[in-house]
TrEMBL record:
Residues 1-100 form the Integrase catalytic domain. It comes from the Bacteria. InterPro entries: Integrase_cat-core, RNaseH-like_sf, RNaseH_sf. This is Integrase catalytic domain-containing protein. One of its GO terms (biological process) is DNA integration. GO terms for molecular function: nucleic acid binding. It holds the Pfam family rve.
């Protein structure tokens, strides 16, 4: 997860898969670290992966004192999620250059 204001990585999950439950845990941790009392909740932008379409994720967005706005990008438009796509590209390149 990236804060597009300062481009800081605010949360991440590393694993062979990524379930809705894991996304929710990561988002909760990021909110606990970054969201200050009285601050407006962030807008969460994601693709249309099953994790983000799940009931569990929708409930998390709605359960907070001030509900989170979940903005999904249109299918097949990764350019609308450019910050995280760029980060993934750098991560993948560094992995192949330094690990393999």
């Amino acid at each position: 997860m990236i804060d597009v204001f300062d481009r800081c990585i605010v949360g991440y999950h590393v694993g062979a898969s990524c379930t809705a439950k894991q996304v929710c845990v990561t988002l909760r941790e990021a909110l606990a670290r970054r969201l200050q009392p009285g601050e407006s909740p962030p807008v969460i932008r994601s693709d249309n992966g099953p994790q983000f379409l799940s009931e569990v994720f929708g409930e998390l967005c709605a359960e907070t004192e001030r509900p989170l706005e979940h903005e999904r990008i249109p299918p097949k438009t990764p350019n609308m999620n450019a910050y995280i796509e760029s980060f993934h590209s750098i991560l993948e390149r560094d992995f192949y250059e330094n690990v393999l």
